[in-house]
Design goal:
Layout (H helix, E strand, L loop, with lengths): L6 H18 L2 H18 L1 H15 L5 H24 L5 H4 L3 E2 L3 H9 L5 E4 L6 H10 L4 E5 L5 H13 L3 E4 L4 H9 L3 E4 L10 E6 L2 E6 L1 H9 L3 E8 L5 E9 L7 H22 L30
Helix pairs in contact: 2-4, 3-4
Length: 312
């Protein structure tokens, strides 16, 4: 349980006041302000800037010049600010409004085709583009989606996040909960949305390649797929020029138990991670490079602190 820190309440009130101001703006104004704030934050928040640049250098090495890395780092902060204001505005958007700037393409046809197999779908995305808007668009379109989310242990913030997601029909289950609920969703032929692209060493995981370096990665998507037969769909909603978005589907993966369970988990986790990385490489400014993706080292691992999302 998080320690009580009185200043958190005042920061929360400040955040809600700022969010209320952003909520009332037209989207185009909010995005313009977000771009300015994101660029300013890049200059004025050195801790985040240093983390972003260090991670970009590790990912790209000498393949990008220092100037290219610097330019990309600024774009990362600008995109993050824009995604934040769009998240704030979600409750006032219905499907008709979202479809004005989100190109759904053939995503509905593809998802509905997979649903006809009757085993549910495991939708794997990452912290790329706008994952909150992705979930909102699918849910408002009528797809039965439940997302696996991390609980914020400061209750006012958590309640705020939950209420925004509920406003666009997004259902949630916390990632430290029982796998039974997830299995029930798949049994009902529903969709589970998961963002397993971050280093969370409290969850069961393995090391797979990410931009040429071993990265600790959750195994839950593949374990669920092996147990239920549900396909894994790697997808993202990425920002385009003029404030638009479009869906990308990098691939459909169907894990099967060919030899041992561990070998299958390794193989298919590597496969979906490569698919997601391919999207990130296309839109590197839209991924959360402030996250320490390679913080867990293999030589320091003694096993996950907590078994969650067991599928056996």
């Amino acid at each position: 349980m998080a320690k009580k820190k009185p200043y958190r309440f005042f920061l929360y009130l400040l955040a809600r006041a700022g969010a209320g101001f952003v909520f009332l703006m037209p989207r185009v104004w909010a995005l313009a302000i977000a771009r300015a704030v994101g660029s300013l934050a890049y200059d004025r928040v050195p801790r985040q800037r240093k983390k972003i640049l260090a991670n970009l250098r590790q990912a790209y090495g000498s393949t990008k010049s220092p100037e290219e890395i610097e330019s990309l780092g600024r774009k990362v902060m600008v995109h993050a600010a824009q995604a934040a204001v769009e998240w704030i505005q979600l409750p006032k958007w219905d499907l008709k409004k979202i479809e004005r700037f989100v190109d759904l393409g053939d995503v509905m046809t593809r998802y509905e085709s997979l649903q006809r197999e009757g085993k549910g779908i495991i939708a794997v995305t990452g912290h790329i583009g706008n994952w909150e808007l992705l979930a909102a668009a699918l849910c408002l379109k009528g797809l039965p989606l439940t997302v696996i989310a991390r609980k914020i242990y400061y209750e006012p913030y958590n309640r705020w996040i939950v209420n925004i997601r509920k406003s666009v029909n997004v259902r949630m289950v916390y990632r430290d909960g029982s796998a039974r609920e997830l299995l029930s969703c798949l049994k009902r032929n529903e969709i589970i949305g998961v963002l397993p692209d971050q280093d969370v060493d409290s969850l069961p995981g393995i090391f797979v390649d990410f931009f040429g370096h071993p990265a600790y990665t959750p195994v839950a998507p593949v374990k669920l797929a092996l147990k239920t037969g549900a396909p894994i769909v790697v997808t993202a909603l990425v920002r385009q020029p003029a404030g638009r978005y479009r869906f990308l589907v990098a691939g459909v993966i169907r894990p099967v138990l060919e030899t041992t369970a561990q070998e299958a988990i390794q193989k298919y986790t590597e496969l979906w991670m490569r698919s997601l990385e391919s999207i990130i490489r296309q839109y590197p400014e839209q991924w959360v490079w402030m996250h320490s993706r390679w913080k867990t080292k293999d030589e320091n691992r003694t096993g996950p602190r907590k078994e969650t999302l067991k599928t056996s």
